[in-house]
């Protein structure tokens, strides 16, 4: 009995023995995740872009604000005035429209030069270079062929550049939407058709095409001369003489 008592006292007085022979605790099993019927963003075809408000569709196209896919083509804009509306509209650009009509009838080289200058203002091309090139082609066409056939071919590229810059509807697309007789075409075929329509518009209605482009570009782009920074001129004060009163 005494021996058993002494062994019990030794076991109680040595806490290391209980820690060495103590069985390690088994980790608790994680509770099974609750199954929900909600689909993850990946399953829905949309993945958030790191909390910055951007997203991606299942096809890999980025999402803009809302649910608009950035890769989808946007609708074409309409021209501000029709091809045969030579006098323009009765608005704040009425005087400019009358000027455009006068220039297109009397001096098409000047109207073409101003249109090209506004379109290519970022490249720094001058009005004189466009106007002189058009005038040379105008004279060569009338001298060798008897009519202005070269300048319209040259001026049609301005119409194509204007359609691309302002996302305007072309003649081929307008014809398809009005009559609906032609099926849908690919992007390359559509662009070739629009380029031919631009050339045909200038060949058969050159003055009207120049006037329509002039009215459009004046409503959308300011004149390059208006973008110049104002110059501050300092005028020194006049000489002041000191005189004594008598």
From the structure above, extract its key features.
single chain; 246 residues; mainly alpha; 3-stranded antiparallel beta sheet; elongated; transmembrane; membrane; PLAC_motif_containing
Chain-wise SSE layout:
Blueprint: H1 2-13, H2 15-20, E1 47-48, E2 55-56, E3 62-63, H3 94-106, H4 108-119, H5 127-144, H6 150-166, H7 171-179, H8 187-204, H9 206-220
Antiparallel strand pairs: 1-2, 2-3
Helix pairs in contact: 3-4, 3-9, 4-5, 4-6, 4-9, 5-6, 6-8, 6-9, 8-9
Transmembrane segments: 136-156
Organism: Rosa chinensis (China rose)
Region (Disordered): 1-43
Task: Using the alpha-carbon principal axes, give the shape.
Answer: elongated
Oligomeric state of this protein: single chain
Any low-confidence stretches, pLDDT <50, length ≥5? 7-13, 36-72
Helical run tally: 9
Task: Give the number of DSSP strands.
Answer: 3
The computed structural class is mainly alpha
Distance between the termini: 141 Å
Order of adjacent strands in the largest pleated sheet? 1-2-3
Mean pLDDT: 73
Amount of helix: 40-55%
- Tell me the fraction of residues in β-strands, as a range: under 5%
Instruction: Write down the Rg.
Output: 39 Å
For the biggest sheet, the summary is: 3 strands, antiparallel
What sequence of helices (H) and strands (E) makes up the elements?
HHEEEHHHHHHH
Organism: Rosa chinensis
Protein name: Putative PLAC8 motif-containing protein
Keywords: Membrane, Transmembrane, Transmembrane helix
Architecture overview:
The chain is mainly α and 246 residues long. The protein has a domain at 93-220. The chain is built from nine helices and three strands; from the N terminus they run ααβββααααααα. It has a three-stranded antiparallel β-sheet, with no helix packed on it.
